[in-house]
Specification:
Lysozyme-like; alpha/beta
Length: 154
C-alpha cells in the first residue's frame, strides 16, 4: 500500500479516429513478448476514454487515496505504485507518424469531467502527463497548460 501522489494522463498512441478496445489494450500490455505484447501482469491504465467520450474502467480500484497492490497499473515505470493512470484513445496523426492531440470533442468533455472530479476528490494529488515523467510524447498535449485552461491550478 502506498499513498496516491499523482494522476497520469496518457494517449494510446494510435492513429486519429481509430477505435481501440479494452481487449486491444489488454493484449498489447499483457500478452507475452513472443506474441507481440509487453508481458506485463496488469494493463497500464485504470480507465480509458473512448472516441465517443465513454469512460471504461479497465482495473478496479478502491476509489481512495491509497494504492493497494491489486490496483497498480503499469502506466509509467518508477511511478506506478503511487499513481493512477487514465488514457484517451488516439494521440497520433492519421498516418501514425506524428504525435498530436487528437482528442475528439466528446473525449475533451469526458476528460475534463474526469479530471475535475478527481481533482475535487483529491486536491493534493498532482495531475501530470506521461511526458512529464518519461522521455515520451504521450499524451500528445501540454497537460499543465490544458489544466489551467479548465480552471485547475496546481
Amino acid at each position: 500500500m502506498a499513498k496516491l501522489k499523482r494522476l497520469v494522463l496518457h494517449c494510446t498512441a494510435t492513429p486519429e479516429g481509430r477505435a481501440v478496445s479494452s481487449d486491444d489494450i489488454r493484449a498489447w500490455h499483457t500478452n507475452p513478448v513472443s506474441k507481440g505484447g509487453r508481458g506485463w501482469r496488469q494493463v497500464g491504465y485504470t480507465d480509458m476514454i473512448h472516441l465517443d467520450g465513454t469512460v471504461e474502467r479497465l482495473v478496479e480500484n478502491n476509489e481512495n487515496d491509497i494504492v493497494d497492490p491489486w490496483e497498480i497499473t503499469n502506466g509509467a515505470a518508477g511511478y506506478n505504485s503511487t499513481s493512477r493512470h487514465v488514457v484517451y484513445v488516439g494521440g497520433m496523426d492519421k498516418q501514425n507518424k506524428k504525435a498530436m492531440d487528437t482528442r475528439t470533442p466528446e473525449q475533451l468533455e469526458a476528460m475534463e469531467a474526469y479530471v475535475k472530479d478527481f481533482h475535487q476528490r483529491f486536491p493534493d494529488i498532482r495531475i501530470v502527463g506521461h511526458n512529464e515523467l518519461a522521455a515520451k510524447a504521450c499524451p500528445s498535449f501540454d497537460v499543465q497548460k490544458w489544466l489551467k485552461s479548465i480552471g485547475i491550478n496546481q
